[in-house]
Amino acid sequence: MNLTLRIWRQSGPGDKGRMVTYPVADISPDMSFLEMLDVLNERLTLAGEEPVAFDHDCREGICGACGMVINGNAHGPQRGTTACQLHMRHFTDGETIDIEPWRARAFPVVKDLVVDRNAFDRIIAAGGYVTAPTGSAPEAHATPVAKANADAAFEAAACIGCGACVAACPNGSGMLFTAAKVTQLGLLPQGQPERYTRVLGMVDAHDEAGFGGCTNAGECTAVCPKGIPLSTIGRLNRDYLRATAKRGDTPGT
Amino acid sequence: MAVTGIVLVLFLIAHMLGNLKIFTGQTSFDHYAHWLREIGAPLLPGVWFLWILRTVLLVAVLAHIGAATTLALRARAARPVRYAHRRPVQGSYAARTMRWGGVIIGLFVIYHLLDLTTGALNPVGDPSRPYANVVADFAPDRWYVTLFYTLAVVAVGFHLRHGAFSALRSLGQQTPRGERRARAVALVLAVALCAGYLAVPFAVLTGLVD
């Protein structure tokens, strides 16, 4: 396959950045999207140019490191897939592909396609944890959990924190990410002690990081590689309403 | 957004039911319109109830616009650099037309008040004869008025399609099955209100009501 790539190049946080066009030839349809970028980078390196910086780690769709907006779609055209698991057979020979980083004030560009997602860590630090008992793993049946709750919690726990929800949101909101963690912990008995301080703390941290507000537009769940359902945001809203009615506790303690 | 939106939707339902009284004839419709000014009498003198209702609606509309503006400004600030490749809509189309749709509805409401409340833009414009005002308004040779009303009502329909679902979600609707139900409720509400509101101008246009 021969392709024309238009890639966002930005040498550092202070640089203004621009789209740069690169032709790539002889791409196998069996390559992953990141392997195709590896081929481009090898050629750029041989030609003495600066390779395109992009985040990646496991390359099997479970770490959440990779992420780029491909032709306007976070993680590309295939649903339920990260960019590393997207294969070139989903593109046609001769196609022009636009590749951009996640665009959000809370995710400043570090270089090229690499963005700083520390804002997500700050949201987790504000309440996305349980008061963990230390020691060995507890016996499985010591704390009963209803099957339906366990399933819904597991579904939400599949979030890999890649940030595609923010990239796709017309409001630049990170509410799906926040809601996934609130749902996961709120459905399990271990998450109950901090249930209401958690939601207040995490939403406050979310807003402070500069994310936009959620308007239930549903673009996030459409691009989520793990298919986190939009209903998690309803669970967050319900916990938030209860928490603001109770108040009293200090958020995120 | 959700709470003020629900207040406005309740008004829309009552307003539509009132509009449909036009099919019961001129005397009945005019009587209903005059009764609206006297609700609450003799406990409340004159048009007090009407003004209380108008105040509640005005507060709801202003709070709704205020909240929407805050969200829009936050959304703008949250993405300082736009995408070069504009992404296709994958969620709901209605959800992406809320802001401009809301502006269009706002402008329509101003026109609508000048047309059928104060009568300033109405060919008859006599507040004591609401039936005659409506019939003159949607006369076939004033097709552009009917067209504008139709566009505005459809905009309201789109606004409700997303707005009703979004309000339920904001107030804590949280299960996937409930989400399907909430979306169905929003769709039925939007279609029913559209049909109810459009029935009147088209009945006048086709001569069913004259």
TrEMBL record, chain A:
<dbReference type="InterPro" id="IPR009051">
    <property type="entry name" value="Helical_ferredxn"/>
</dbReference>
<dbReference type="InterPro" id="IPR017896">
    <property type="entry name" value="4Fe4S_Fe-S-bd"/>
</dbReference>
<dbReference type="InterPro" id="IPR025192">
    <property type="entry name" value="Succ_DH/fum_Rdtase_N"/>
</dbReference>
<feature type="domain" description="2Fe-2S ferredoxin-type">
    <location>
        <begin position="18"/>
        <end position="103"/>
    </location>
</feature>
<dbReference type="InterPro" id="IPR036010">
    <property type="entry name" value="2Fe-2S_ferredoxin-like_sf"/>
</dbReference>
<dbReference type="Pfam" id="PF13085">
    <property type="entry name" value="Fer2_3"/>
</dbReference>
<comment type="similarity">
    <text>Belongs to the succinate dehydrogenase/fumarate reductase iron-sulfur protein family.</text>
</comment>
<keyword id="KW-0479">Metal-binding</keyword>
<dbReference type="InterPro" id="IPR050573">
    <property type="entry name" value="SDH/FRD_Iron-Sulfur"/>
</dbReference>
<keyword id="KW-0411">Iron-sulfur</keyword>
<feature type="domain" description="4Fe-4S ferredoxin-type">
    <location>
        <begin position="150"/>
        <end position="179"/>
    </location>
</feature>
<dbReference type="InterPro" id="IPR017900">
    <property type="entry name" value="4Fe4S_Fe_S_CS"/>
</dbReference>
<dbReference type="InterPro" id="IPR006058">
    <property type="entry name" value="2Fe2S_fd_BS"/>
</dbReference>
<dbReference type="Pfam" id="PF13183">
    <property type="entry name" value="Fer4_8"/>
</dbReference>
<dbReference type="InterPro" id="IPR001041">
    <property type="entry name" value="2Fe-2S_ferredoxin-type"/>
</dbReference>
<keyword id="KW-0408">Iron</keyword>
<dbReference type="InterPro" id="IPR012675">
    <property type="entry name" value="Beta-grasp_dom_sf"/>
</dbReference>
<protein>
    <submittedName>
        <fullName>Succinate dehydrogenase/fumarate reductase iron-sulfur subunit</fullName>
    </submittedName>
</protein>
